[in-house]
Amino acid sequence: MLTFANAKINLGLFLTEKRTDGYHNLQTVFYPIKIYDVVELIDAEETSCMVKGIEVPGETTDNICLRAFKMLQAEFNLPNQRIILLKNIPVGAGLGGGSADAAFLIKLINDKFNLGISIAEMENYARKLGADCAFFIRNQPVYAFGKGDEFEEAEIDLSSYFLVLVKPPVHVSTAQAYANVSVKQPVQPLKRLIELPLSEWQSVMLNDFEPSVFAAFPQIAEIKTKLYEAGAKFALMSGSGSSVFGIFDRAVQLPELEKENLVFYNL
């Protein structure tokens, strides 16, 4: 059996507090987008993980999907499986590809073995794997808070716009992004700002990772500038970077940005 795991972007991201457990409290809005990995489960004599497509840093024995499967295997005495990942979601881009793969694998396991795990229970399993992993269980726009794994429904629909995502040829690790970030309480909570008209987002819907990441990687800041120059109504780096998205009210082509970057249109 196989499934298609999609990416996400962050519509705003406020880092509000450093936690005692090493995480940060934050406010963000997760929004699913149409870039997909393929996650497949095949019966096998031994449990293993194979990754194809985009190269993923680290050993496959540490892959988040393998950890997800072994967690459920221990709980439900599952037979061994071969996990095959066809990676298409850019890595180190703030798009949640690894978390998406693990969450969709949990749902795939639930379906394949008829485990009857509820959505809420699947979210709890996903929370053990990563801060944003639980989002992908329901996979619908949410206002996220806490360390990014507590959710409230977000009434937001960008389907009438044209979303463009640009991934430069640089990798921003999560640890690197957090190393130089500043935390502060926002003047207004993000769940209120997201209700404003999109035309007002530029000055208030910020990403607190941008200052430090832009300082280290000026080419990412330049992409954001070029998206606005091309007519974007709103542009922002997603998550801890390195991808930047632009929201347009018309279809666009950006050949200048295509020269050195991956560009995804109409997401």
In short:
It catalyses: 4-CDP-2-C-methyl-D-erythritol + ATP = 4-CDP-2-C-methyl-D-erythritol 2-phosphate + ADP + H(+). With 267 residues, the chain is of the alpha+beta class.
Walk me through the structure.
This protein has 267 residues and is of the alpha+beta class. Helices cover 30% and strands 28% of the residues. It has 10 helices and 10 strands. It has helices at 64-76, 97-112, 119-127, 135-138, 174-179, 190-193, 201-204, 210-216, 218-229, 255-258, and strands spanning 2-18, 24-43, 48-53, 81-87, 142-145, 150-153, 162-167, 234-237, 244-248, 262-264. The strands form 2 sheets. Strands 1, 2, 3, 4, 5 and 6 form a 6-stranded mixed beta sheet that branches. The model has no long low-confidence stretch (mean pLDDT 94). It catalyses: 4-CDP-2-C-methyl-D-erythritol + ATP = 4-CDP-2-C-methyl-D-erythritol 2-phosphate + ADP + H(+).
Task: Break the fold down into its secondary structure elements and pairings.
Elements: E1 2-18, E2 24-43, E3 48-53, H1 64-76, E4 81-87, H2 97-112, H3 119-127, H4 135-138, E5 142-145, E6 150-153, E7 162-167, H5 174-179, H6 190-193, H7 201-204, H8 210-216, H9 218-229, E8 234-237, E9 244-248, H10 255-258, E10 262-264
Helix pairs in contact: 1-2, 2-3, 8-9
